[in-house]
TrEMBL record:
CDD domains: AFD_YhfT-like
Protein name: Long-chain fatty-acid-CoA ligase (Proofreading for biotin synthesis)
Single Gene Ontology MF annotation: ligase activity
Domain AMP-dependent synthetase/ligase: 10-346
UniProt keywords, alphabetically: Ligase
Boundaries of every AMP-binding enzyme C-terminal domain copy: 393-464
Pfam families in the record: AMP-binding, AMP-binding_C
Record-linked PANTHER family: ACYL-COA SYNTHETASE, MEDIUM-CHAIN ACYL-COA LIGASE ACSF2, MITOCHONDRIAL
Alphabetized SUPFAM superfamilies for the sequence: Acetyl-CoA synthetase-like (SSF56801)
Family: Belongs to the ATP-dependent AMP-binding enzyme family.
């Protein structure tokens, strides 16, 4: 099965159901199936049938049409971020090996450094409208359909691909573990360049629900859509959730919140649940390479607020020591995952063995019930006089302080200790108060030795801390 194979069935059974609703247009499943099929047939009839098609468009129905159409044609879709500079776009396009890029003329200036052929959106849509609507030939589910770029929190972004099979397996998690169905109206307020929001839209279409797509995240507008569109599911990241909570955006009706992309502090979830008890809060841990790994249900969140959750129904987790032995519950080691949802591999790199265990070098432990706890990234670990400090653990403690809005922790060189932990803080507090706060929750050696207060902490497009930028900035202060 492929990510688009259910469209025809929904077009036959529920032709008038709305597939996608944007701020300016909507489309039924009958017309959605036709458009995707025409797009696939147009691609298949090109003189040189493309293998990879780049997309340089904002959030829109056209973006999803080209993405799904490329997948239905057996091509790999390569979303290009409209926020990237011309140099970044040129670099990503070169890495992708795209045969051409479909772009809006609004972004001509983004393509000045690219050698990739361009097809302008207006011309593309005119050709697609003339293409056949006959069903396209079947596509091998093992083929890659999506090329993304890692967020680059620890360095330069890398390109990776995913197969149809990997996402279809993930769709079963959305249906089984998150209880999302064809009856849902799913709000996607974030950029489709983020795999979290792109997945939210594509999985909803696969399951036969309605995608409510915003051009960009505006809290007040998101609040309006909750009431006007009877939203039942929201894909979000913690910073968005906090922004919505600040303006009391959530409705009185039940809404399923599916959050990922960054660590969601337990204190924030507890406040949200206390104020809006009818919300169903799902937080999950996953990576570009592994896809879904573990999730925290609304019920589990009350019992184990600091956990990343239990493994998804089709995932197995092992914690291994440096020697490769299985760790005991509560013992920190490297997280290994066995899953049918793993990526196909990095571009221009060896394809991983899909049948075996895989790690992205995250460290953590499981408790007696099998719930996963994330300590941090092995390559982000701070070695302080031979003792290991995980920045993520310290950040979680700092973020639990009511006066802290954002926090980032990184290691900086020290002649005596080797490395010391430095904290960058956004908030209305000071180092003395934060040291006292940390003493109650952390071992003394984990408390940051240097404190920097600022109005802005660098973040990636997906809302994670841009650790490489934070580290570079901090180290520049001590050089």
């Amino acid at each position: 099965m492929t990510i688009t194979h259910t469209y025809r069935s929904f077009a036959d059974k529920n032709p008038s159901r709305i597939a996608i609703q944007t701020e300016s247009e909507h489309i039924t499943y009958r017309d959605w199936n036709r458009l995707v099929t025409q797009t696939a047939n147009w691609l298949r009839t090109q003189p040189n049938v493309p293998k990879r098609v780049a997309i340089l468009l904002p959030n829109s129905l056209a973006f999803l049409q080209l993405f799904a159409g490329a997948a239905a044609a057996g091509c790999t879709a390569v979303p290009i971020d409209t926020r990237w500079s011309a140099a970044e776009c040129g670099e990503r396009l070169a890495v992708s090996g795209a045969d051409f890029v479909v772009a809006s003329s609004l972004f001509k200036n983004k393509l000045t450094d690219s050698l990739t052929p361009v097809v302008w959106l207006e011309d593309c849509m005119a050709h697609i409208a003339e293409a056949s609507a006959d069903p396209a030939p079947a596509v091998d589910p093992e083929l890659p359909f999506y090329m993304g770029f890692t967020s680059g929190s620890t360095g330069k972004p890398k390109a990776f691909t995913r197969s149809h099979r990997s996402w279809v397996e993930s769709f079963q998690c959305t249906e089984t573990d998150f209880s999302v169905s064809s009856n849902d109206k799913v709000l996607i307020p974030g950029t489709l360049m983020s795999s979290h929001f792109l997945y939210g839209a594509v999985s909803t279409l696969y399951l036969g629900g309605t995608v409510c797509l915003l051009k960009k995240f505006i809290p007040a507008q998101t609040k309006e859509w909750f009431t006007q569109k009877s939203i039942s599911v929201l894909y979000t990241v913690p910073t968005m959730t906090d922004a919505l909570a600040n303006i009391h955006a959530f409705p009185d009706s039940s809404v399923t919140i599916i959050s990922s992309g960054a660590d969601w502090p337990a204190a924030s979830k507890e406040k949200l649940a206390a104020k809006w008890p009818h919300l169903k809060l799902y937080d999950f841990y996953g990576t570009s390479e592994l896809s879904f790994v573990a999730y925290l249900s609304p019920e589990d969140s009350k019992r184990k607020p600091h956990s990343a959750g239990r493994p998804f129904h089709n995932v197995r987790i092992e914690i291994r020591s440096a020697a490769g032995d299985l760790c005991q519950p509560g013992e920190i080691g490297k997280i290994f995952v066995k899953s049918p949802m793993k990526f196909s591999g990095y571009v221009n790199s060896r394809t991983p063995d899909q049948s075996e265990w895989m790690t992205v070098d995250d460290m953590g432990y499981v408790d007696e019930e099998g719930f996963l706890y994330i300590a941090g990234r092995e390559n982000g670990m701070i070695v302080y006089g031979g003792l290991n400090i995980f920045p993520e653990e310290v950040e979680r403690v700092l973020l639990s302080c009511p006066e802290v809005e954002k926090a980032a922790v990184a290691g900086i060189p020290d002649e005596y200790w080797g490395e010391i932990a430095a904290a960058v803080i956004c908030g209305n507090t000071d180092a003395k108060k934060l040291k006292a706060w940390c003493r109650h929750k952390l071992a003394s050696y984990k408390i940051p030795k240097k404190w920097v207060f600022t109005d802005c902490i660098p973040e990636t497009n997906s809302g994670k801390i841009a650790r490489s930028s934070v580290k570079k900035w901090l180290r520049g202060m001590v050089d």
